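tool_call predict_complex ligand=copper (II) ion
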Amino acid sequence: MEHERDEHRLRLSRRNFLGLGVSVAAGAAVGTLLRPGWLAPALAANELTEPPVLTSRKGVLKITLEEKILPVNVGGQVRNVWVYNGSFPGPTLKVRPGDQLLIKLKNSLAQETNLHTHGLHVSPSGNSDNPLLHVEPDETFDYQIDIPQDHPAGLNWYHPHAHGNGTQQIFGGLAGALLITGGLDKLDGIRHIDDRLLVLQSSQFDINGNVVTFGTGASGMGDPAKHTHFINGQLNPTITLEHDRLQRWRLLNATVTSLYQISLEGHTFFQIAADGNPFDEPVEMTSLVLVPGQRAEVLVRGGAPGSYNLQGTILQGPSNPTITLATANVLAKKGHGRNIPSTLIPLVDLRNFTVDHTRAIHFNAQGTIFTIDGKTFDPTRVDQTILLGALEEWTIYNDQTNPAVPHPFHIHMNPFQVTKINGVAVDAHSYQDTMNVPPNGNITFLTRFADFTGKTVFHCHIIHHQDQGMMSLFEVVAPNPYRRR
Ligand code: C2O
Ligand code: CU
Ligand code: CU
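tool_result ok
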């Protein structure tokens, strides 16, 4: 099975190379695919593999991403999944601050789509990271996304964002990592640590291997306990570690609706980044909560030799099963115990600045109507107008109590610093762009609307809530030079 999978990936790489316009990055992609790990016969059965990598060259990543339903070996079976360039998850895009992304999106689905670069601090207008665009079936669209020179380095991602269609497209598999290199990667004590990408996805299939329509079948609203949970398109892959040696895991929750509490038996995590933003210091934890849309980077130190389950407890839905997402196999090897640095990258603490404006935002739902401040999404209605450069304090309320459902808040373009959870002050270790709002609870954050004007959105990152209305349009406007504030 593993051999078949490798064959499949290699075929894909050739296809990417020849057919799908990966001109600038093709060399890098093929180089990565052919690294010895893919061919080594000694590879453990079902050892964790990673999606193909497309790397920028001379400041540009020019690629075609084709969205299509294709038979792909996912979790050891050929299934008809919704994929970018035939890969589940999509290829990893690897860029640097200051780079330009030139992405030709080709829609070979039977429904409208578009592309969002989740976590990027870039323009939301024109053919940049514009969630209001419509790319119709058989159309192609040329995105140009300019990443600022001073952009933080870390793990971000890309996925479709066409209102009403996102649920099925992401449930089918359309998601990929977007890695910005630099920052922590260059830090003493971090840069020599091997890193691994772990893309979490969940889906549900009928007996023919087709992705079911989200929320139909036995599950009603889409119960994550009934989904199949993958890491990098594998079921319970093996992650090999060495005793006392550190590994850096970069986790992405690319599911539609699975809130996971993740832990590794016999081990702790040292979190070093959240949502593509570096921590100011490593934070040790026994488990990590990762809600849809969120990313976390953690260091793991191989414990006593043996086999350990990487467990995910699903925090919402009618049942809360604990599933095995992967198995860590710790070898008794020549690992050398490196120290974890005590400080990382300093946080510019927004609490030291004057707040220009305060807002309260209310999430709620009744049946299948999901609202923000009592309204469902309307792409023609601007709900919040914000002055460019303003430092704002927002409190997001989850008013839904019956049933009690969490709503992970996400905002495009500018990350935020959480300052309170349910009114109690907290000290954040980084900015983030996605944060769960517990039922009947609230979060408060500070954020500066820096660098970019234009219209974009915030929403619940449980994608079916978003598609059913829980999304809101805001506009950042340049201050009127003739008006005194
Ligand atoms: Cu990943 Cu608007 O979202
Ligand atoms: Cu986003
Ligand atoms: Cu929600």
